[in-house]
């Protein structure tokens, strides 16, 4: 399992085996939301067939770009807008 902490929204993002990301509230430990490629905050849409996605190898926070990046075993990088995640999730 891979995980990354986001200071901006106080969430921990973990990668799942089906290509989704799960956002966990750092304070409570409860799951807050699940992100998949059909989510409006996903800014990359190539290879977005979630039923074909492979496990997330590593999530990464790009502070300068305000993006969350997920790298998957099916060789796709997916980008998530942290500003929208903070506002909507």
Concise summary:
Helix content is 8%, strand content 42%. With 89 residues, the protein is mostly beta strands.
Describe, in plain words, how this protein is organized in 3D.
With 89 residues, this protein is mainly beta. The chain has one domain (3-88): Thrombin, subunit H (Beta Barrel), CATH 2.40.10.480. The protein contains one helix and seven strands. Strands 1-2-3-4 form a four-stranded antiparallel beta sheet, with no helix packed on it. The longest helix has 7 residues, at 82-88. The chain is globular. The model has no long low-confidence stretch (mean pLDDT 80).
What topology emerges from the helices and strands here?
Blueprint (H helix, E strand, L loop, with lengths): L2 E4 L4 E5 L5 E5 L5 E5 L20 E7 L4 E6 L4 E5 H7 L1
Antiparallel strand pairs: 1-2, 2-3, 3-4, 5-6, 6-7
